[in-house]
Amino acid sequence: MTDSSNMISNRYDVVVLCLSHFAGGMELDAIKMARGLAGANISTLLVCKRDSFISRQAQQAGIQYQEIDFKTKLSLSLIWQLRRIVKSGHVKNIIFLGTSEIKSIYFALLGLPQVQLIVRYGTTMSSSKKDLLHRWFYSRVNYHLCISEHLRKNIELIIPIARQASIGVIYTSTDFLPESPVIPIKKAIHVGRIANGKGQLDALIAISGTELPLKLVGAENDPSYLAQLKAEIQKRKLETQVELIGHHPHPQKLFHDASIFLFPSHGEGLSNALIEALGNGLICITYDNTVFPEFEKLGFHMHIARDKDVDHVRELINMILNNFNQEIELARSNISLAQAIFSQKNETQRLSEILR
To answer: Which residues, if any, are the signal sequence (predicted)?
Structure first.
């Protein structure tokens, strides 16, 4: 459903606001969140950028949504359109996925203290926002929502949290495919956009000298890094061992052809791909950084290599291949745990507890 006068004449308990034009984890999370809240009979409107990935996906999924047309992250057009939606829809809560448009949101909500602003964070941040200007804009935030304990610690360091504001953690939900019998197979897969820091280069180096085949699945948006990967494949003579798949709309459908999820990423806020792999019973290998140790604390069986130690990753691969059947059984125990912790029902219930 697109922009219409009928839509904003309705009353909405929640606006899920994501103004990104990209197609990635945060954008999919916004769609899942809006769908989950609406499915729990919470009146919800998804607000997104015009002609974006989110708007197209929302239309296909039958989610009630409204588009906003703007060119810059701080703009009168964005402020006016968002304010109009909030006032006309008698909105009680806004859940904002992102940070870039916080200035426009601040001005859009001036004089509307009855609206609770929840900012949801999904990415590790490095640059401090605790200068005077950012303290002013973030003073409007009522609740800082993080998708992992790692991110909670990161946000407390980076973002100015007003004295009257709260901060908490709610794990994002994942759409798992229906479980089907998987025949154990000594192959590995990596899922993530092709970009520096996502771990594809580390994965290539780690399998060098082993007989483990590897599929790299992800959007090829970084030509220079892609060229580096191809050069490394040629240098190490891995042409018959590594397959570059590119973007795939449903990476989980490729999990039937692999039993090892090789994910030596240099850092993640949570990682949908890892959650999907755990929920499908793949043997998972990561580095010891950012959010990954948190999965072990949650009770998952996985292998965590020393951070950026490719040789240690290779040692873990060889250990897994030598104890393959046992590792398969241990990985299968992750399935029910992942599907419980990262369920839509769990996320929606936790969200409903912080709404006005």
So the answer is: none
